[in-house]
Amino acid sequence: MRFLHTSDWHLGRTFHGASLLDEQRLVVDRLVELTAEARVDVVLVAGDLFDRAIPPTEAVALLDDALVRLRGTGARVVAIAGNHDSATRLSVNDRLLEEAGVAVRGDVARVVEPIVIDPIDGGAPVAIYPLPYLEPTVAGPVLAALAGGDGDGGGPAAPEGPTDAVDDVPVGRLSHQAVARLALDRVRAHAATLGPVRTVVVAHTFVAGGWQCASERDLSVGSVELVHTSTFDGIDYVALGHLHRDQAWDGDRIAYAGSPLPYSFSEEGAAKSVRMVELAADGTVHAEVVPLGVGRAVRTLTGTIDELLGGDAYADATADRLRIVLTDRDQPMQAMARLQQRFPHAVVLEHQPDGVAAVPIGSVAGTVRAARSPLELAQAFWGDQHGTAADAAQTAVLTEAFAAVAGAVEP
């Protein structure tokens, strides 16, 4: 059976104030194209379909278009709510959509309601378990109740608290690891009742050892956030979302597809892609990372303003989203406006003069306490802003300014 694994679309997101919807439409076009070309059986979308719980209407319309078009290729679609999504809003029509071959799962209580598909090319049925983002304080009680037996054939006894030794958290405070273990224990127990079956889990979490980017939202406030790869033992393929770089463990059995577009400058140089996964009849996994090749790249340019604006050295950067680091001794006037005339998608400007050492934290405060005149305070502020002391000409201007002010206020 063939899967296309993607995640973290973040529809409706902006990049330093710039809308990404046009590029996200290109992403949808490319996903539909790949799904049709490869004759994909199931598209797996591992969470964060939207960028926020209440997305803009244009993002909602784009998701609707994506689901209709992906299903129109003949592939089934299985998606889950991520930590950026509102699970209830996203999955409000899930039961109805499943009848049409599209599952958008947000209800943790349905953890043991897999989508079971009988392959046309032989092999055991494939049971896909969609696990929406498991917020410990919300999902923990639900999963613990399921583990205690809920009329679906029983199951392991409910733990009194997080007892997994790797958690190292106080009893009564569930970690992401503890909640993930509860969910996967239920999945394994349920799969065992189905007879010979191949299992796929779609989850949105932070696996220990994963490479994190600046654009991901921290999953933890006051509790352990990491989930260990051993949590997914016994599952044939684990399609993960949350981390925005493509990465995998245990061969290709446990994998992140990454986001389809870069959402921070920490993703500079990272190829954006999807995973094309073949799940063999014996449960082995063969995956290919397929670059998407859409959207603007993110890039950092460093140099003086004259270097950046002159010549053809940076002609290839005019279509990119840019973070520009100026190394001029003094920050040029109207620098961003001038740079955007050549680089219309420059969004971040930083000033780091060449050869200027960073001012240690606390040094200015000490200088202010020791200063004995307004001029000395101004000189300390100058040094803090520029990383170097004012030269003779600049000191003369400051001295003249303070003398003028002093003369103006004298009786």
What is the CATH third-level topology name of the largest domain?
Purple Acid Phosphatase, chain A, domain 2
CATH C-level class of the largest domain? Alpha Beta
User: How does CATH name the architecture of the largest domain?
Assistant: 4-Layer Sandwich
Please trace the helix and strand order, writing H or E for each element.
EEEHEHEHHEEEHHEEEEEEEEEHEHEHHH
Radius of gyration: 27 Å
Strand order of the largest sheet: 6-5-4-1-15-16
Number of helices: 11
**What is the quaternary state of this protein?**
single chain
Q: Fraction of residues in helices?
A: 25-40%
How would you describe the shape? elongated
Main beta sheet strand tally, sense and closure:
6 strands, mixed
Number of strands: 19
Strand content: 15-25%
Return residue spans where pLDDT drops below 50 for at least 5 consecutive residues.
149-171, 220-224, 358-369
Class computed from helices, strands and strand pairing: alpha/beta
**pLDDT average, as an integer?**
86
By CATH, the superfamily of the largest domain comes out as Metallo-dependent phosphatases
Distance between the termini: 90 Å
